[in-house]
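Open question from group meeting: does this chain pack into something compact, or does most of it stay loose? Before anyone orders reagents, we agreed to write out a predicted structure and look at it together. Recording both the input and the output here so the notebook holds the full record.
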Amino acid sequence: MPQFADFAQTRAWLDRHAQIRFVDLLLADQMGIPRGKRVTVDELDRVHRDGLLLPASMFALDVLGGTVQSTGLGFDEGDADRVCLPVPATLVPVPWLGEQVAQMQVTMFDHDRSPFFGDPRHVLEAVVTRFAPLGLKPVMAVELEFYLVDRERTATGHAQPPRQPLTGRREYKTQINSMQDMNEYSAVLAAIDAAARSQELPTGTVLAEYGPGQFEVNLHHVDDPLLACDHAIRLKRLVKGVALQFGMEATFMPKPYRDQAGSGAHLHASLVDVQGRNVFASEDPAGSERLRHAIGGLVATMNDGMAVCAPTANSYRRFRTEAYVPLNPSWSVNNRGVAFRVPHGPPDSRRVEHRVAGADANPYLLAAIVLGGVHLGLTQQLDPGPVLAGNAYRDNTPSIPLSWPEALAVFEHSAFVRDCLGERFARLYAQTRRGEMIDFCSHVPALDYDWYLTTS
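Structure tokens returned:
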């Protein structure tokens, strides 16, 4: 049952933050891109009571903000509005925009206040309810990788690493866990941490990743997948906003550089019973039988959900051998080359780390297909196959859809997807992604001229 924000709580928060004059009301679209409106604090009472009106076509947009008309949510229905209501516990300050601005997430409903089928947050909510009859509750955390890039592009229009704040050099090498890189970007990382604390985000470890200017921020686990994904949406906006304050841009584009590591969204999931005990816990490093069944479901449904894990053309450039990106539905213990990793740790920390998705994936939809796969594996007691040992890329031919058209075709024909995400949403998602794909592929890039103009 959807939870609606209580204006009394909002009013109490505003009383404690008397400097706030404006609130950005954010609706995460199919790609997780925040869209919405800025209102004054005086308008929040009405928003809580009557809702914020936004067109349903918010969920029929491509990444450039154009409506994919084949969805029927554009001119076919007159670009009609729906009601958007505030999400509880999402009113937070926005320090990088000044002390007078706050933000709050909203989610879309039909006029009878039933959940709007096209909102990914409601899609995840419906999947989460499937675990209650099993006496289980999902616990989840998201890790997000991103690049800091120069605001100036190269002469050919490509991204480039920023000049390092201390040395002024432009670094092109890769240095995993480099403390030198941490030192160089210490100020911006500290500002990200401060902003996260002001927004009560449960951020933990920040580490330098393989690429120049690439970092990962880990969010701590919570026993509410909706909240975990709210955190991820909040973190992405925060990182982008803070980076601009330091004269840089932050990008969650999966593959900004051809010869550097891609950026992923790693989702950690476990399940607790009614006593709060982790049912994946085991002295066995590979976890309990229930964990193996859960991974069995993820193995069985990996290909079906690739269009969610990799939603754009650039997403598929990330899938390369020995790039810490899975090419098969493999699983292992403490092995970062597989799709489904059981991290090393004490017995009660057993969980599965889903390592397939790019950082551009919508966190609500990613969580939905992951939990849908886990639920399928548990209820059907699926076997994940043997634990992979050693190099995940050796003698292991890629078996996943490695192109946008192929992934969309698998998605559109998947009974699992229709059951997990809902038939209407699955059709809507496929239409928006296919519409964007057709438009993208109609353009002639510079590389076509470099390769084919004089050779054809």
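Observations to bring back to the group:
DSSP finds 13 helices and 14 strands in the chain.
The chain has two domains: 7-116, 128-448.
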